[in-house]
Design brief:
The structure holds 2 protein chains of 2 kinds.
Chain A lengths: L6 H5 L15 H8 L1 H4 L1 H18 L6 H26 L7 H12 L2 H9 L3 H23 L5 H20 L4 E2 L3 H7 L2 E2 L2 E2 H19 L1 H11 L1 H6 L4 H27 L1 E2 L7 H11 L11 H20 L4 H25 L5
Antiparallel strand pairs in A: 1-4, 2-3
Chain B lengths: L1 H9 L5 E10 L2 E11 L4 E5 L6 H8 L7 E6 L2 E3 L4 H7 L1 E4 L11 H5 L6 E2 L2 E2 L1 H14 L16 H14 L4 E5 L7 H16 L3 E5 L3 H7 L2 E6 L2 E8 L5 H9 L19 E10 L3 E9 L3 E5 L6 H8 L7 E6 L2 E2 L5 H6 L2 E4 L3 H5 L6 H6 L7 E2 L2 E2 L1 H14 L16 H14 L4 E5 L7 H16 L3 E6 L2 H7 L2 E6 L2 E7 L5 H13 L1
Parallel strand pairs in B: 3-10, 3-11, 6-9, 9-10, 15-22, 15-23, 18-21, 21-22
Antiparallel strand pairs in B: 1-2, 1-4, 4-5, 7-8, 11-12, 13-14, 13-16, 16-17, 19-20, 23-24
Helix pairs in contact in B: 14-15
Classes of the chains: A mainly alpha, B alpha/beta.
Amino acid sequence: MSAQATAADERSGSAGAPDRDAQGPLRGVTTLFSGPAGRNLGLVIALALLCVVGLITAGDRFVSFDNLMTILRLASVIGVVSVGMTFVITGGGIDLSVGAIVALSSVWASTIATQTLAADMHWVVMVTTALLVGAGCGLVNGMLIAYGRMAPFIVTLAMLAGARGLAEIIAQKRTQVVTISEFVDVVGGMVFGIPVLVLIFAVVAIAGWILLNRTTFGRRTLAVGGNPEAARLAGINVKRHTTLLYVLVGVACGLAAVMLLARTTAGTSTHGNLYELDAIAAVVIGGTLLSGGRGTIVGTVFGVLIFTTLTNVFTLNNLDTSTQAVAKGVIIVVAVLLQQRVAARNGSPP
Amino acid sequence: MSAREIQVTAEREPLLRMSGIVKRFPGVKALDGIDLEVQAGDVHCLLGQNGAGKSTLIKVLSGAHQPDGGTISWRGDEIHILNPQDALDHGIATIYQELDLVDGLTVAENIFLGHERARWGVVARADANRATAELLRRLGHPEVAPTTEVGRMSSAGKQIVSMARALSHEAKLIVMDEPSAVLDQEEVARLFGVIRELAGQGVAIVYISHRLEEIREIGDRVTVLKDGRTAATGLAAAETPTSEIIRLMTGRSIEYVFPDRPERQQAGEPALAVSGLSRGDEFHDITFDVAAGEVIGLAGLVGSGRSEILETIYGARKAKAGTVTVAGRRLRPGRVGAAVSAGVGLCPEERKSQALVLHESVARNISLASLGRFARGGFINRRDERRAAGEQVRALDVWPADVRRHVRTLSGGNQQKVVLARWLLRECRVLLLDEPTRGVDVGARSEIYALIRDLAASGIAVVVVSSEIEEVIGLSDRVLVISDGALVHDSPAEEIDEHQVLDMVMEGEAA
């Protein structure tokens, strides 16, 4: 840095470069504030406001370690899906089929055949099955979009219908109870007083952040979403990359299915209902551009936390889910309006 | 009032008078004091090479751009055209090259789109159809049925619908942006008939084209633009010799400094060999070699196939026949990745839409093609990345020399340098440059020229495509002329001059 600190550098101090970071031990802190969290100040405030409301209306029932874990457990499944969704949207796509893929993965991984095999070998068989089913659905989505040149909206809409239908056929519309108790104990259990589900979400979020911000894969995602033609002419294999993005979100759905299986101890074709809306809402209010080219995992995590905290506060106050849905709608609109204002002030493209 | 009457006796009061129009874009002065006067009932031709400012000027006139300086007076009163609707309200209609018609609607529905004939909110179709038939009769084309779906019509038919739409707004002035570009000769003749019809009714036409032979056929007056300035205005189309118009179009209002050509050495193995390259209607049987350190210029009009040739060499389009060989290795057709790893780089024509990720930083744009160099196990070493990008930024003198700045905030010339830097970082040996100075400020051009020459001197084989003939000749060691998808000329740059190239380029078009 100091080597290239010229007069021009100082002049451009207000340019608002995305990853301006300082040297030394303060580096992490400054990155946090001038980076994602600073940009997502509106989200921090919204979450803080929600917590204040929770504190006033529910008092100790809201502010407790147990309740915090309840919120995080609730956030973990949709959180994993939303992290995957962040990649697809950043890459210029959309995936409407996430909920259906979660359902299919959960059903497939909990069939008698799979569970018998898992009982003979190891419960990891169930996990692998769910991940592979998710990846397979994502691969079909991605191939049709990238190589079949179909619109992501249409392809994933078809997958939404098809995957959930297939789940219903496999499960014969019945709930499949998970009989492998070891699986439920481990994935649904606790480590050092923290639910494993929450730990999985934390690991996925951190891995997602690193993948998006520090790797060639993430950089290519931004380029493909920001200007696919420029990416192609720079020698990036845009089709392959697009396919990989859908496989990635598919795997995230498979993982979410594993988490659901452990939490509910059952696989059904109704799992993951309307996850696509919750995930897209969380990603968009988090500040990821719906048109692609800019994505933020931190924003997505905030988006997920805002929605789950909202649900929690409403539940603690015995308000019905309809009121909750109205509040959700209002929050989406207000948050996106605020994001746009902030983005416009920072001179970002709309 | 009386003052104006006196003026009218001296000279007809022009319908439109634009004077001293200035329009700036970030980093570029697109219009630098344009003057234009159009009389009612005249067909006024607007000429100029690409980048001369024709499109910007008509966008100012149609209200799509707001001028930064100068005045527009319309039927004697000074006006400000606020937006396209405002222009229509004044009676100024613009027909763009990409016609803005809705294919799924009928002729009548298109014509009255936005100002539908309606009663109590219900569209009065019979009324609209009748009015449409009347407009088409005025244009001399009563045979077009108002109920035809526009999507089924030919380009020429669509042109006529667009003109009828302009008339439906009671336009006094119709601007036509290269209407003949998509038409065949017969259709052009039909279009000219319509234009004459309209001019006879007192409607003024501003006609943009770069086909010189058309100007003489249809035009009354000619205005020539060059580098955002008016090179000549109000010339009589019938009396001005073609050579004079060509001189005005190509003549230098500003001297560009082209770097000296180095001594020609005996070329060894060609860095790039193109052989028999063909791609359907776009171009056919293109063969040429480029030696390391050589600059080849491809001259040709828009649509002659020149950009398509570059993109096919690069693998962005798949060749139907022929081969591309880089340093003795044949490239797999239709694979950008193969070309890039063989050391070919392309700076595409549309810098913003094809080359840059605009809201990313300069560093990230430079490193885009060589991410692998900074990555270990998929993780990018951002310090290395920025250092390498910084070296390129300094080497190419990009200003401001800040690799973290968003590339969007740079001027056209500096953005072009960023695209060049991307390929220098990649250490490419063949560089394909499509319109390297488009949208680049006049002052920064010489710098880009010197840079290209330096790159060649360092052993890179360079192919430059440009519609500015003086640029092709001034910059290149060898000039290739493309006309109608065929290579019609190949010679050292010293052996050919601008007029010869322009003749060849235009000739192919006319045939």
